[in-house]
């Protein structure tokens, strides 16, 4: 069985939990973690390793197979290097192609776009020379993606085994206003130390990303069980392990769906429109049994007597208004309820800044008064948030939401720290 080198990018800040996850995935298909760098992890393994990571990782963004690496000085070297690779072993001129490039600031190329063009031309020329035809370019839904990484001295060529980025699980119908990427949500759940036995509550659940990720984790569902991957289209990719890996994932899915397990996972939002979206996403993800409620986070109460974990990424710099009525939940699940209109009026009338300051103070008060014993994890790009909430952060973890630098604040809502206040945390 050949062993390949892979690079798997992930949201910055999640590398350590991604390595932990890879060690768990190694029980399904052998792989070895070689190194972790900001924004990704290198590992080695056979074709099954990439399949298992694509199918099971909740934190990876994609899985790239290293084709070749060489030193270079300019765009002409890139063209020559890309021409030498046996791309015809992996795909044909009937496959559509896209070439992506990432260059460090120190890369000795004048124009990154032009460098990508040279690599694309080299691949197309190579295929025409060997097979008599050039592949078509498709930037939207290509069959094959080649990734080029340029450091100051080295060019690395990768073949993508993923296709659409892995955070696209296949269940999201409507994105809502500002959905959290699924892999960032999953990474935050891991960073929080949450396990399915512990109650989990997202009081600003929006389209439901945290609660859907958590429920799928609790039920042991494969992150990519509902979607396809680029390796399925690559010729000469050894697919012998795929039926076994896919069958095990499908079996877990069927067992989970037949059991109707009660999950300790709760979501609420002030917006009925968002809850309609969350409900549709839950159903598409096969998770009808989750509890959803329309309520202002300032008026929230603990959904369980046993303390648990709160996760949230609150709105930032936007005016908060109640929109729409929540639908009534179908089936035997919990009922969604309409929120308090008196609280809601406030959000309509206040100025955005005042509304935001008032909201975070009231949200902090709700945590202090009604969530003793819970831990809250709040993701925000606003470093002053603990001050606004009048709570002391026990931990702050830098995380990147795409290009936006954020902090994941942990608040331990124990009696002793409840009165502790700091005006500004950083
Ligand atoms: C950044 S979005 C959260 C996105 C969510 N994590 C997702 O993945 O879709 C913030 C959410 O907070 C909700 N929200 C704003 N003010 C609120 C309030 N006072 N109480 C409860 N939810 C509120 C908004 O309706 C929105 O859905």
Automatic annotation (TrEMBL):
<dbReference type="Pfam" id="PF22020">
    <property type="entry name" value="RlmL_1st"/>
</dbReference>
<protein>
    <recommendedName>
        <fullName>THUMP domain-containing protein</fullName>
    </recommendedName>
</protein>
<dbReference type="InterPro" id="IPR000241">
    <property type="entry name" value="RlmKL-like_Mtase"/>
</dbReference>
<feature type="domain" description="THUMP">
    <location>
        <begin position="49"/>
        <end position="161"/>
    </location>
</feature>
<dbReference type="GO" id="GO:0008990">
    <property type="term" value="F:rRNA (guanine-N2-)-methyltransferase activity"/>
</dbReference>
<dbReference type="GO" id="GO:0070043">
    <property type="term" value="F:rRNA (guanine-N7-)-methyltransferase activity"/>
</dbReference>
<dbReference type="GO" id="GO:0003723">
    <property type="term" value="F:RNA binding"/>
</dbReference>
<dbReference type="Pfam" id="PF01170">
    <property type="entry name" value="UPF0020"/>
</dbReference>
<keyword id="KW-0808">Transferase</keyword>
<dbReference type="InterPro" id="IPR029063">
    <property type="entry name" value="SAM-dependent_MTases_sf"/>
</dbReference>
<dbReference type="Pfam" id="PF02926">
    <property type="entry name" value="THUMP"/>
</dbReference>
<dbReference type="InterPro" id="IPR053943">
    <property type="entry name" value="RlmKL-like_Mtase_CS"/>
</dbReference>
<dbReference type="InterPro" id="IPR004114">
    <property type="entry name" value="THUMP_dom"/>
</dbReference>
<keyword id="KW-0694">RNA-binding</keyword>
<dbReference type="GO" id="GO:0043527">
    <property type="term" value="C:tRNA methyltransferase complex"/>
</dbReference>
<keyword id="KW-0489">Methyltransferase</keyword>
<dbReference type="InterPro" id="IPR054170">
    <property type="entry name" value="RlmL_1st"/>
</dbReference>
<dbReference type="InterPro" id="IPR002052">
    <property type="entry name" value="DNA_methylase_N6_adenine_CS"/>
</dbReference>
């Amino acid at each position: 069985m050949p062993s390949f080198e892979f690079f798997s990018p992930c949201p910055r800040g999640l590398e350590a939990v991604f390595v932990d996850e890879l060690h768990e995935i190694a029980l399904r298909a052998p792989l070895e973690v070689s190194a972790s760098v900001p924004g990704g992890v290198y590992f080695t393994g056979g074709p099954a390793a990439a399949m298992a990571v694509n199918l099971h990782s909740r934190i990876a963004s994609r899985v790239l197979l290293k084709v070749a690496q060489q030193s270079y000085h300019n765009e002409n070297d890139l063209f020559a290097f890309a021409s030498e690779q046996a791309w015809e072993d992996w795909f044909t001129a009937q496959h559509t192609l896209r070439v992506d490039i990432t260059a460090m600031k120190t890369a000795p190329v004048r124009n990154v776009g032009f460098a990508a063009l040279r690599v694309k031309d080299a691949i197309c020329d190579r295929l025409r020379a060997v097979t008599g035809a050039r592949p078509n370019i498709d930037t939207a839904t290509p069959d094959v993606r080649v990734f080029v990484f340029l450091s100051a001295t080295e060019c690395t060529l990768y073949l993508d085994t993923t296709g659409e980025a892995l955070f696209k699980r296949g269940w999201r119908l409507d994105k809502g206003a500002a959905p959290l990427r699924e892999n960032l949500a999953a990474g935050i759940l891991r960073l929080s130390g949450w396990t399915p036995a512990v109650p989990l509550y997202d009081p600003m659940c929006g389209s439901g990303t945290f609660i859907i990720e958590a429920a799928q984790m609790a039920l042991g569902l494969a992150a990519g069980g509902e979607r396809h991957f680029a390796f399925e289209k690559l010729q000469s990719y050894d697919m012998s392990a795929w039926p076994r890996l896919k069958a095990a994932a499908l079996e877990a899915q069927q067992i989970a769906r037949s059991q109707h397990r009660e999950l300790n996972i709760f979501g609420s939002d002030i917006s009925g429109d968002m809850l309609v979206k969350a409900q549709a996403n839950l159903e598409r993800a096969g998770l009808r049994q989750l509890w959803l409620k329309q309520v202002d986070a300032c008026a929230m109460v603990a959904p369980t007597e046993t303390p648990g974990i709160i996760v949230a990424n609150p709105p930032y710099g936007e005016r908060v208004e109640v929109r729409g009525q929540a639908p009534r939940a179908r089936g035997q699940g919990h009922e969604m309820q309409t929120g308090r209109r008196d609280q809601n009026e406030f959000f309509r009338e206040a100025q955005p800044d005042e509304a935001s300051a008032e909201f975070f103070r009231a949200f902090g008060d709700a945590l202090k008064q009604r969530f003793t014993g819970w831990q809250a994890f709040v993701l925000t790009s606003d470093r002053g948030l603990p001050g606004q909430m009048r709570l002391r952060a026990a931990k702050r973890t830098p995380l990147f939401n795409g290009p936006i630098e954020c902090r994941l604040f942990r608040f331990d809502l124990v009696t002793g720290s409840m009165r502790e206040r700091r005006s500004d945390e950083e």
